Here is the input.
Amino acid sequence: MPPAPRTVSHQGPASGAQAAGGPVLSIAGLTIRLGADAIVEDLSLDVRAGEMLGLVGESGCGKSVTALSIMRLLAEPPMRVAAGAIGFGGQDLLALPEDRLRRIRGNDIAMIFQEPMTSLNPVYTVGDQIAEALLLHRDLSRRAALAEAETLLARVGIPAPRGALGRYPHQMSGGQRQRVMIAMALACGPKLLVADEPTTALDVTVQAQILDLLDDLRRETGMAVVLITHDLGVVAQYCDRVAVMYGGRIVEEAPAARLFEQPRHRYTEALLRTIPAANPPGADLPAIPGSVPQPGQRPPGCAFHPRCPAALPRCSAEAPEITAPPHRFACWNPAQ
Amino acid sequence: MSLLELRNLSKTYPGAGGSTVQAVADVSLTIAPGEVLGVVGESGCGKSTLGRTLLRLTEPSGGQILFDGQDITGLRGAGLKAVRRNLQVIFQDPFGALNPRHTVGQIVAEPLLVQGIGSRATRAARVAELLQIVGLPEGAARRYPHEFSGGQRQRIAIARALALEPKLIVADEAVSALDVSVQSQIINLIAGLRRRLGLAILFISHDLSVIRHVSDRIAVMYLGRIVEIGPAEAIISAPRHPYTQALLSAIPRAGVSRADRIVLKGDLPDPSNPPPGCAFHTRCPKVMDICRQRRPELAGARHASACHLPEAQP
Here is the structure.
C-alpha cells in the first residue's frame, strides 16, 4: 500500500509527445499574495507535453491557488499575483488581456475540480453542456457538436453515450459526472489539463477508473496533466514527476521514482514515513509534531523548521534556495 | 463475553417515490472489551448508519443491540442515558461537532454535566486531566474551538468522548478530514488511549490502509451488508471476497502495473434498488449464474465471507 520503492518501472511520458521539445507550461518565480501574506512564494515549475506531474501537499500549502493562477482564475482581489510569469505557448499568461485568455481557457488549457457537481449546470443536460463547450471554441453546427459530444462521452467510458446526452447531472453518479467533466475538458483538445483533486470525492474503486482514464488520455493525446492531490499513493502510482509543496513553496521536485526512493527534503521524508501503509500494523506511527501552518502564520526561514527533526539554527533564519533539476530540493540539512 | 453484540441489525429509510433504502441489512457482529473492529466500505455501504444505529442515535428497524449483556434496542429515558455513559462517538468533522460559542472547557465538561457528575471544581479538574491525556495544553480549556487547528479540534472531540470513561467509542471517519502529517498523530493518540484505557473501538473508515493499521478485526461492507469479516491480518493478506480483493487492489501505490490490479467496472448500485442475489454481482469480475439469483450467506467462524465462489469458502 505504501508509496514505497517502486519495483516496476514506469512507462514514462507518452512517446512522441516529447518531440515537441520545451515545456508546455513554464512557471517562473510566481508569488501570489493575499493582502500582505504570501500564499505562494517564488514558485517555479515546468510541465512537459504528455507528462503527468503531481503537485502534492497538505491543506493551505498553496497547490490549488497555484492551479487557479495558471487558468488566471484567482479571486482577484483579494488575491493578486505579486511577481512571476506563467509561460504557455510562447506567451506570458499573466500579461494577456481577458479576451485572449478566454480563448486559451477551455481551448488550450482545461481544468477539472474535485466536485464535478459544482462545475456542471444542474438545469442543462450533459449533452447540451458539452456541445456548448464545443460551440464556444469551434465552428460547428449544433448537430455536429452533439455528435462530437457523444463521441467524447464514449471516449471517457460513459456507457450508452447517446442516451447519456439527454441526462441531467443529478441523474449521474459522482464518477460519471467526473467523466463528463473530463469529456468537456477534452472537447477542444487541450495541451494542458489541470486536475485539482479530481478523485478526492470519489470512492476508491471509482478513483482507480478515473485515474486510469486520465493516464490513458494523456498517453494517447500527448496532453500534459498537472495532477493536484494530497494523496502520495496516487502520485506514486500515476505521476512521472512530483513537486511537493509546503508553506507556499515547492520544497522538493524530482522524477517520481527518485522522490519516493530518495527523498531529500525533511518534510517529504517525514511525510513518506508517517503514513500508515509504510508502517507495520499497530505500530506507533512516526508522527510529525505540530500542525500545517496556514498562510499568514507561516514561520520565517524554512516553513517546516518548527516541525522538523533535523532543523539547524539557520533553518529558522533563512529560507533555503531550491537546488537545480532534475532533483530539486530546498533544505539546509537534507536527508542523505 | 462480548462487550457489544449486534444480532441481525437492520435500518431502512424511506426513499424516493415510496421505495425503501436498506441502509443496514441483517448485520450481526461482536466486539470484545478492548478490541478495535474496523468497518470499511464505500459510500452508501451503510457503515456510518451502522455506527449511528448501534449508538441509538437513530432507531433500528429490526434486530437487537446488546451492550454488556443488556438488550439496549428498546431502551429509553433514564435507561438509555445510563448506557450512553459507556457508548461515545467521534465524528469526521471536529468543527461541526463542537459548539463554537462554548469554550473547550465547557465542551469537554458537558457530558459530565449532562450525567450530573461531580461538582464544578471536580469537573474542572477532570477537564484538565482529559486535556492532558489528549495532548492539549492546560490553557486550552479557556479558549474556543476556532482557535485550534483541525487536529487539535479532533483532540478536543476525543477528550469529550473520554469524559465519562466509556467502554466503547465509535470513531466515524475520525481521521479522514485531517492532513496526512496530522493524521498519524491522531491515529497514535487513539491507539495509545485504547491500550491505556482498555477502550473498545468501532473504527469506521473508507480508507483501508488506516483500517488495516488500527484494527484487530475488520468488517467489509457493501450495500448495507457485511460481505467479509475476520482478523485484520487475514482480511489483508488472504481476502476471500472479490469485493475485498478489489478494495485492496484499488489503493493507489507505487510499483503496481495495471495488469496486476483489479479495477472494478461501473459504479456502486443505487442503495434503494440493490441488485438481486449477491448485491456485488453487477461489478464482480468472477460472477457466476447463482450470484444473480441467490444471496450468499456469511459463512465461516473467525474469518467469514458471503460469496458463492468455491475459493471463498472457509
